Amino acid sequence: MKTNVPPGPFYIDDLYNTRYQGDLEVEVIEASGKTSRFTVPYSSVPDSVRPGNWHYSLAFGRVRQYYDIENRFFEGTFQHGVNNTITLNLGSRIAQRYQAWLAGGVWATGMGAFGLNATWSNARAEHNDRQQGWRAELSYSKTFTTGTNLVLAAYRYSTNGFRDLQDVLGVRREAKTGIDYYSDTLHQRNRLSATVSQPLGTAWHA
Fold first, then answer.
1. FRET pair for 42, CA 20 to 30 Å: which of 35, 125, 143, 166?
2. Does the entry feature the keyword Electron transport, yes or no (predicted)?
3. Mean pLDDT lowest among 97-101, 112-116, 165-169, 186-190
């Protein structure tokens, strides 16, 4: 990228990077022809979208391991960058006698990204009874200039009626085939997870 700036102190705030972290090599060529170079390390906020941009994904397929029952599904997710601080999230997952809808957002700060999403589900599951409920998810993530990525996520299943599609299909298969279905998430109310990752660099690749 090349840009002209006025004499004196300056800043550039419209760079589009394709990685979460790295180094910016800056070369300044003055009107006199004098050249200076310096490096600026940077880290971007995970899960956030630049202002005015949209990120979306659409998927249609079948859930693995559940081919002996109706297992086709459709899934869509959308993210919109409102400004440099706020990103809005929307999503849906639809299958036979199952719907789940998600809404939430990401708040980007200099200390990292704070996310809050709420998901409501409606399903026919155990004994073909209707199960409805919602789940709230609170998360924190930060990528450091060293490449280290930290993710903390606390999930709260606030009602017994919330169901993931995986659990719904497992219960339906058990009812049809008699194969026992075991799940740690079927009646789970709380969950806390932490992930730390660090790229090892090209020297570790074959």
1. 35
2. no
3. 186-190
Identify the CA nearest to 87 among candidates 60, 39, 122, 52.
52
Q: Which residues, including other chains, have CB under 8 Å from residue 39's CB and lie 6 or more apart?
A: 23, 24, 25, 26
**Which single residue is written with the structure tokens 């957002």?**
105
Domains of the chain by residue range:
54-202
Question: How many angstroms from the chain centroid is the CA of residue 149?
Answer: 13
Quote the Cα angle for 171-177-182, to 5°: 40
**Strand intervals (E) in the chain:** 21-29, 35-43, 54-62, 72-81, 86-95, 98-109, 112-124, 130-143, 149-157, 190-197
Cα–Cα distance for residue pair 192/104, rounded to 1 Å: 19
What's the pTM?
0.69
pLDDT by residue (tens digit) across 23-80?
567 788 887 878 888 766 555 555 788 889 999 999 999 988 787 888 899 999 999 9
Average pLDDT, the chain: 81
